[in-house]
Amino acid sequence: MTELMDFYRNYIGLPVRKSTHLSKDRIPSPFKSTFKINKIKDVIEHPIRKVPAFTFLEDDSYVACEGCRIYPFFKFDSSKILELYPNSKIISIESFTKKGLPWTKLEIPEEISLEEQFLHCKFLGAEAINLKVFHNNQFVYPDYKIEELVTGSRLKS
Protein backbone atom coordinates (compact mmCIF):
# COMPACT_ATOMS: atom_id res chain seq x y z
CA MET A 1 0.00 0.00 0.00
CA THR A 2 3.00 2.33 0.47
CA GLU A 3 3.48 2.53 -3.30
CA LEU A 4 -0.17 3.48 -3.77
CA MET A 5 0.02 6.12 -1.03
CA ASP A 6 3.17 7.55 -2.63
CA PHE A 7 1.29 7.77 -5.93
CA TYR A 8 -1.58 9.72 -4.35
CA ARG A 9 0.87 12.09 -2.62
CA ASN A 10 1.57 13.52 -6.09
CA TYR A 11 -1.84 15.20 -5.79
CA ILE A 12 -1.21 17.10 -2.54
CA GLY A 13 -2.24 20.72 -3.01
CA LEU A 14 -4.71 20.00 -5.81
CA PRO A 15 -8.45 20.62 -5.56
CA VAL A 16 -10.77 17.59 -5.42
CA ARG A 17 -14.45 16.88 -5.28
CA LYS A 18 -16.20 13.73 -4.15
CA SER A 19 -16.98 11.24 -6.87
CA THR A 20 -20.58 10.81 -8.00
CA HIS A 21 -20.35 7.01 -7.63
CA LEU A 22 -20.56 7.48 -3.85
CA SER A 23 -24.00 9.05 -4.11
CA LYS A 24 -27.33 7.38 -4.93
CA ASP A 25 -28.64 10.44 -6.79
CA ARG A 26 -25.33 10.87 -8.71
CA ILE A 27 -24.75 14.29 -7.12
CA PRO A 28 -21.53 14.46 -5.08
CA SER A 29 -22.12 15.29 -1.44
CA PRO A 30 -20.17 18.20 0.07
CA PHE A 31 -17.19 17.71 2.35
CA LYS A 32 -17.43 18.24 6.11
CA SER A 33 -16.36 21.84 5.43
CA THR A 34 -19.67 22.19 3.48
CA PHE A 35 -17.65 22.99 0.35
CA LYS A 36 -18.04 20.90 -2.77
CA ILE A 37 -14.34 21.29 -3.52
CA ASN A 38 -11.49 20.89 -1.01
CA LYS A 39 -7.70 21.01 -1.38
CA ILE A 40 -5.66 17.92 -0.56
CA LYS A 41 -3.51 18.35 2.54
CA ASP A 42 -2.04 14.85 2.94
CA VAL A 43 -2.54 11.13 2.32
CA ILE A 44 -3.19 8.78 5.24
CA GLU A 45 -4.36 5.22 5.72
CA HIS A 46 -8.15 5.24 6.09
CA PRO A 47 -8.67 4.11 9.71
CA ILE A 48 -11.59 1.81 8.88
CA ARG A 49 -11.14 0.68 5.27
CA LYS A 50 -7.31 0.49 5.40
CA VAL A 51 -6.94 2.16 1.96
CA PRO A 52 -5.27 5.48 1.05
CA ALA A 53 -7.36 8.50 2.02
CA PHE A 54 -7.00 12.24 1.44
CA THR A 55 -7.07 14.77 4.27
CA PHE A 56 -7.96 18.37 3.51
CA LEU A 57 -6.87 21.91 4.31
CA GLU A 58 -10.45 23.09 4.82
CA ASP A 59 -11.53 20.62 7.53
CA ASP A 60 -10.40 17.64 9.59
CA SER A 61 -12.14 15.00 7.49
CA TYR A 62 -10.69 12.24 5.32
CA VAL A 63 -12.11 10.49 2.26
CA ALA A 64 -10.79 7.38 0.51
CA CYS A 65 -8.73 8.53 -2.49
CA GLU A 66 -10.77 6.31 -4.81
CA GLY A 67 -13.85 8.30 -3.75
CA CYS A 68 -12.44 11.64 -4.95
CA ARG A 69 -11.85 13.18 -8.36
CA ILE A 70 -9.35 15.88 -9.20
CA TYR A 71 -11.16 19.11 -10.09
CA PRO A 72 -11.58 20.28 -12.75
CA PHE A 73 -12.26 16.71 -13.74
CA PHE A 74 -10.06 15.74 -16.66
CA LYS A 75 -11.84 13.08 -18.67
CA PHE A 76 -10.02 10.36 -20.56
CA ASP A 77 -11.91 9.63 -23.80
CA SER A 78 -11.09 6.26 -25.35
CA SER A 79 -13.53 6.53 -28.29
CA LYS A 80 -10.81 7.28 -30.87
CA ILE A 81 -8.83 4.26 -29.73
CA LEU A 82 -11.86 1.98 -29.84
CA GLU A 83 -12.76 3.23 -33.33
CA LEU A 84 -9.33 2.19 -34.59
CA TYR A 85 -9.25 -1.02 -32.53
CA PRO A 86 -12.89 -2.19 -32.22
CA ASN A 87 -13.66 -4.84 -29.59
CA SER A 88 -10.33 -4.22 -27.89
CA LYS A 89 -9.34 -3.64 -24.28
CA ILE A 90 -7.04 -0.82 -23.22
CA ILE A 91 -4.73 -2.38 -20.64
CA SER A 92 -2.53 0.50 -19.48
CA ILE A 93 -0.42 3.51 -20.35
CA GLU A 94 3.07 2.14 -20.95
CA SER A 95 5.03 5.37 -21.33
CA PHE A 96 4.74 9.10 -21.95
CA THR A 97 6.80 11.85 -23.49
CA LYS A 98 7.21 15.53 -22.79
CA LYS A 99 7.98 17.99 -25.55
CA GLY A 100 11.51 17.44 -26.84
CA LEU A 101 12.27 14.58 -24.43
CA PRO A 102 12.51 10.80 -24.95
CA TRP A 103 9.77 8.40 -23.91
CA THR A 104 9.64 7.59 -20.19
CA LYS A 105 8.15 4.37 -18.77
CA LEU A 106 5.15 5.12 -16.57
CA GLU A 107 6.04 3.78 -13.12
CA ILE A 108 2.68 3.42 -11.41
CA PRO A 109 0.98 0.84 -9.16
CA GLU A 110 -1.06 -1.77 -11.07
CA GLU A 111 -4.29 -1.01 -9.22
CA ILE A 112 -4.42 2.57 -10.53
CA SER A 113 -7.24 2.95 -13.05
CA LEU A 114 -6.57 3.90 -16.65
CA GLU A 115 -8.25 7.26 -16.06
CA GLU A 116 -5.94 7.99 -13.12
CA GLN A 117 -2.91 6.91 -15.16
CA PHE A 118 -3.99 9.43 -17.79
CA LEU A 119 -4.43 12.18 -15.17
CA HIS A 120 -1.02 11.40 -13.75
CA CYS A 121 0.61 11.73 -17.19
CA LYS A 122 -1.21 15.01 -17.73
CA PHE A 123 -0.01 16.38 -14.38
CA LEU A 124 3.54 15.33 -15.22
CA GLY A 125 3.31 17.51 -18.33
CA ALA A 126 3.05 14.70 -20.87
CA GLU A 127 2.48 15.69 -24.48
CA ALA A 128 1.79 12.12 -25.70
CA ILE A 129 1.22 8.66 -24.28
CA ASN A 130 1.91 5.14 -25.48
CA LEU A 131 -0.87 2.65 -24.71
CA LYS A 132 -0.93 -1.11 -24.29
CA VAL A 133 -4.06 -2.38 -26.07
CA PHE A 134 -5.23 -5.99 -26.41
CA HIS A 135 -6.70 -6.36 -29.90
CA ASN A 136 -7.35 -9.48 -32.02
CA ASN A 137 -5.58 -11.74 -29.52
CA GLN A 138 -2.39 -9.67 -29.48
CA PHE A 139 -0.99 -6.56 -27.86
CA VAL A 140 -0.59 -3.35 -29.87
CA TYR A 141 1.10 -0.17 -28.64
CA PRO A 142 -0.35 2.96 -30.29
CA ASP A 143 0.79 6.50 -29.45
CA TYR A 144 -1.66 9.36 -28.95
CA LYS A 145 -1.29 13.04 -28.16
CA ILE A 146 -2.89 13.89 -24.82
CA GLU A 147 -5.23 16.42 -26.46
CA GLU A 148 -6.65 13.67 -28.73
CA LEU A 149 -7.92 11.74 -25.71
CA VAL A 150 -9.63 14.50 -23.75
CA THR A 151 -13.28 15.40 -23.47
CA GLY A 152 -14.41 18.75 -22.17
CA SER A 153 -12.87 22.10 -22.96
CA ARG A 154 -11.23 22.68 -19.56
CA LEU A 155 -8.34 20.29 -20.14
CA LYS A 156 -7.66 21.30 -23.72
CA SER A 157 -6.83 24.90 -22.86
Textual characterization of the structure:
The chain is α+β, with helices and mostly antiparallel strands and about 160 residues long. The protein has two domains: about 1-70, no CATH class; about 75-150, no CATH class. Helices cover about 20% and strands about 35% of the residues. The chain has a five-stranded antiparallel beta sheet.
Structural category is: alpha+beta
What share of residues are in beta strands? 25-35%
Specify the biggest β-sheet.
5 strands, antiparallel
Given the C-alpha coordinates, what overall shape results? elongated
Low-confidence stretches: 153-157
Distance between the termini: 34 Å
Total domain units: 2
Q: What is the share of helical residues?
A: 10-25%
- The total count of strands amounts to 12
Q: Write out the strand line-up for the largest beta sheet, numbering strands in chain order.
A: 4-3-2-1-5
Spell out the helices and strands N to C.
HEEEEEEHEEHEEEEH
Gyration radius from CA atoms, angstroms: 17 Å
Summarize the structure.
The protein has 157 residues and is α+β, with helices and mostly antiparallel strands. The protein folds into two domains: 2-70, no CATH class; 75-151, no CATH class. The protein contains four helices and twelve strands.
Name a few traits of the molecule.
single chain; alpha+beta; 5-stranded antiparallel beta sheet; 12 strands; elongated
Topology (SSEs and partners):
Elements: H1 2-9, E1 15-18, E2 38-45, E3 52-56, E4 62-64, E5 68-70, E6 75-76, H2 79-84, E7 89-97, E8 104-105, H3 114-123, E9 128-135, E10 138-140, E11 143-145, E12 150-151, H4 153-156
Antiparallel strand pairs: 1-2, 1-5, 2-3, 3-4, 6-12, 7-8, 7-9, 9-10, 9-11
